[in-house]
Amino acid sequence: MERLLTVSGLTTEFRTERGTVKAVNDVSYHVDEGEIIGLVGESGCGKSVSQLSVMQLIPNPPGKIVAGSVEFEGQDLLRYGRESREMCAIRGGRISMVFQEPMTSLNPAMTICRQMGEVLTEHLGIDKAEARERSVDMLSQVGIPDPGKRADDYPHQLSGGMRQRVMVGMSMLCNPKMIIADEATTALDATIQAQLLELMYEMVNKYHTALVMVTHNLGIVARYVHRVNVMYAGRIIESGTVRELWANPMHPYTEGLLKCVPKLGERLVPIKGMPPSLINRPPTCPFLPRCRLRQKSCFEEPVPELTHVEGDHYTTCRVRLEGLTDD
Amino acid sequence: MTTKTDSINAPGLGGEVDILEEQLLPPVNEFRRFVKVFFRRKIVLIGFIIVVLIVAMAIFADVIAPFGPYEQDLHNVLAAPDSTHLLGTDSLGRDLLSRIIYGSRVALSVGVITVLLSAAVGTLIGLVAGYAEGALQSVIMRLTDAMMAIPSLILSLIVASILNRGVLGVVIAVAITLFPGYIRLINGQVLSVKQNDYVMAGRSMGSHKARIMFRHILPNCLSPLIVQMTMMMGVAILSEASLSFLGLGILPPTAAWGGMCYDGYKYLMMRPLLSIAPGLAIMVLVFSFNMVGDGLRDALDPKLRGTSSN
């Protein structure tokens, strides 16, 4: 498979009154063409910020990408200005996003058709009639009943699930190479969530589009993704295929996350403690305060780079890497 | 959404029933809801009818007015009201009623043009300020504050005395006092609308600055803008009348209510109606516009939606 996106050393900071928050800290990952990857972690771990950084959608001020590179189809996206023509052409045209809140992600003052049409005219420069035709066709592809009529509805006339279908359709309009689904199904109830996941899965397979699924629910991604990146406190702390991570989680945080996936008849095991503050973090392992495997050396040494374990499996847990414990 | 969860959490059976009723309600037609809320208060309805009547009066002045605005009846100078001249005549023998009817044209056109001009300029600047934030916003907003600190009548007097007298001069003189209000209003609106997810979603779809500003942000700032424009109609008409009264507004002999007040004021003891009638006309029109603005605010403000305050 061809390499589509390579993110290396991406670091995004937010200036706040209390200090500089490193929301994304030296994050590196890659996405191949047509690949589905998961980006998992709890709230505030930098999943969304890392994705918004790739799209250069970080509100500035207070946010700023301070280091790293984002190479997409051979071009370094961070070289382009945030509002540059190149970046605008990539957003929505080559990479598009689906956001968490379907209720508020559509402009209440525009009909569905016009919003979709704008994306088409913007990127493909086609006329309004054709844009309408394509929008209606896309609406029917994402399973909107009676799309010809629905196209003239305003967002408030659709349910949450329908709106998210519209968002998925809108993200596919220009046939992008990659879609970032930022908690795209989190706000929906479980049955609709399943339908939408199926829908996205079908759509990206049909058009051979890469998909980055950002979620805090490992259970959701397990079925669809090829590889998973686990984020904690702004860093990717473990990465691997679903099989590798499930069979052999190396990092105690990944272990904890797996135990947090609800299964019938099994007790949930919470991860004790809270994620650390991201202001003025020491270079030691961010999971240290909550870690049950920690060794004395963990308090002294900086956190290791993502280190190869086997196959596609990488981890940053020094205890496991150096075999300091047989636990 | 919040009301739903609230009612689920509410103790007792009442909450559950609420949910069912809410689900059974037919979808609300926005326009019908708007009309219903707008006309709920009688005073708003009256204001609206008066505005419509005065607009009709201005349009059909030629038909309605018994005499022309400049038509002199030199045998009946300063005549008392009678069956020919219903409100009497002024010092040049012109029919007062006809001049008031024709005067509505000046009042309305100056009002409308002023409001449109100031709203267009103010909205544009406010939009840019709110979208840009940072230094540009600070500079624009501080200048706006400075503008608003100048007493408006004095400012329009100065501007009117510099410019040519006539409709355009008056419009600019009044608009210059009104547009800072729009900057402030729209700036605030943009700051809040900008936070919405659909703005980020629009950006993620590749829309550039101008499209985000004019297609995603501006249409969602329109409600308060419309209310402000209606309210400012009253202010604009009043300012025009003040300028005309002070002799810096619409040139005589054009029938303008403010100027008529001034002309009549010399004969206040003898023919008080000459001043009072155009004064009343100004008052009624301004009052009506304010009432319509009030009703619009009630009907358009999402915070008041669903409440049944009177």
Describe the protein.
Chain B: Its main location: membrane. Chain B: It is a multi-pass membrane protein. Chain B: InterPro entries: BP-dependent_transpt_permease (IPR050366), MetI-like (IPR000515), MetI-like_sf (IPR035906), OppC_N (IPR025966). The complex is a heterodimer of chains A (327) and B (310). With 327 residues, chain A is α/β, with parallel strands linked by helices. Chain A folds into two domains: 247 residues, 3-Layer(aba) Sandwich (Rossmann fold), CATH 3.40.50.300; 69 residues, no CATH class. Chain A contains twelve helices and twelve strands. An eight-stranded mixed sheet of chain A has the order 6-7-8-3-9-10-12-11, sandwiched between helices. In chain A, strands 2-1-4-5 form a four-stranded antiparallel sheet. In chain A, 47% of the residues are buried. The model of chain A has no long low-confidence stretch (mean pLDDT 86). By secondary structure, chain B is an all-alpha fold. Chain B has one domain: MetI-like fold (Orthogonal Bundle). Chain B is 71% helix and 0% strand. Chain B is built from 14 helices and no strands. In chain B, helix 1 packs antiparallel against helix 2, helix 6 packs parallel to helix 14 and helix 9 runs antiparallel to helix 12. The radius of gyration of chain B is 24 Å and the shape is elongated. The N terminus and C terminus of chain B are likely disordered. The interface between A and B is medium-sized, with 32 and 22 residues.
Biggest interface reads: A-B, 32 and 22 residues
What is the CATH topology classification name of chain B? Answer: MetI-like fold
Q: What is the succession of H and E elements of chain B?
A: HHHHHHHHHHHHHH
Determine the strand fraction of chain A and express it as a percent band.
15-25%
Domain unit count of chain A: 2
**Portion in beta strands of chain B:** under 5%
- The CATH class assignment of the largest domain in chain A is Alpha Beta
Low-confidence stretches of chain B: 1-25, 306-310
Radius of gyration of chain A, in Å, reads 21 Å
Question: Topology as H/E string of chain A?
Answer: EEEHEEHEHHHHEHEHEEHHHEEH
Instruction: Give the strand order, joined by hyphens, for the main sheet of chain A.
Output: 6-7-8-3-9-10-12-11
Which architecture of the largest domain in chain A per CATH? Answer: 3-Layer(aba) Sandwich
Q: Specify the CATH class of chain B.
A: Mainly Alpha
Taken from the alpha-carbon principal axes, the silhouette of chain A is globular
Uncertain segments of chain A: none
* Oligomeric nature of the chains: heterodimer
Largest sheet of chain A: 8 strands, mixed
Mean pLDDT of chain A: 86
Number of DSSP E strands of chain B: 0
